[in-house]
Amino acid sequence: MKPLNIMRNFLKFINKSFAGTLDDTLILFFLLWSPWTQAGSFSVSPVRISLSASAPISAITVQNGGSETVVLQLEAMAWAQQAGQDVYTPSRDILATPPIITIPAGGSQILRVGLRRVPDPQRELTYRLYLQEVPPPPKPGFTGLQVALRFGLPVFVSPVKEDTASLAWRISRARNGQHEVGLTNSGNAHVQVANFKLVRADGSELGTQHVAGYVLPGQTVTWKAKDIKVPASGNKLRLIARTDIGEINAGLITVDGIAASSSSIPEVGTIDSGIADAELK
């Protein structure tokens, strides 16, 4: 197979597997599993930026591990979610300097990231800091494919009020008959979900779903339960999720293939009747 076709097939696999745009998918994958983000010939550390009223400035280090000079352009974007989809708009709330960096082979550069507004009193603010690779002019006779990588590091600004995620899980059936797992975050801070699984009362697993996604404050995100089989009515289940705020363990009861729980981490309280309710306090 030709190299170009291999590249195309790989990108299709990534998008299909993680159901997101290429840059965000790669970002999330690396953010979840590595303290460094690697892109071609450059890497970034840390992979998440946290700002607050008491710490309005942070620093990140970009290293060029390749054999050629790398040029990167920085852009800050406000990050929101609508109908479960990420939405980005240009923002001047975040200042990153220098805005354009040139890193020689084997070199590194420290970037300063600062907050240009006061934190919200009630809710976490969310942004992405994009590092866009500027490809060099092609060399004479070059006929291949140039790939310019773009990384979006998440930037979280803590509210004045204590930040916490308050989560409610729901399993529903779509019009096509396929089950979907939805997560509503009614808290004032984000949650990042790596994966979740359903477990019967006897401990047998019904499947694990890898999602690698964020749910921002006040938002709901739904994932197709492609790798999980939801049993019939009357089954008591547990949904166990791996997140950036720890393992979440929610109780569920299925009714006509539907199940729901409300949670707020980390211990199980009561399970009510109806479609299902599990209070975690």
CATH topology-level name of the largest domain: Immunoglobulin-like
Main sheet overview: 6 strands, mixed
What class do helices, strands and sheet pairing give? Answer: mainly beta
Ranges with pLDDT <50 over ≥5 residues?
A: 1-39, 264-281
CATH architecture grouping of the largest domain: Sandwich
CATH level 4 superfamily of the largest domain: Immunoglobulins
**Tally of contiguous helical segments:** 2
The helix/strand series, from N terminus to C terminus, equals HHEEEEEEEEEEEEEEEEEEEEE
Number of domains: 2
Describe what you observe in this structure:
By secondary structure, this protein is mainly beta. It folds into two domains: 3-157, Immunoglobulins (Immunoglobulin-like); 167-280, Sandwich (Immunoglobulin-like), CATH 2.60.40. It contains two helices and 21 strands. It has helices at residues 3-18, 22-33; strands spanning 37-39, 42-45, 49-51, 57-64, 70-82, 85-90, 94-97, 100-103, 108-115, 125-133, 150-157, 167-173, 179-185, 191-200, 205-215, 219-224, 236-243, 246-253, 259-263, 268-272, 277-280. Strands 3, 5, 6, 8, 10 and 11 form a six-stranded mixed sheet that branches. β14 and β15 form a beta hairpin. It is globular, with a radius of gyration of 21 Å. The model is unreliable at 1-39 and 264-281 (pLDDT under 50).
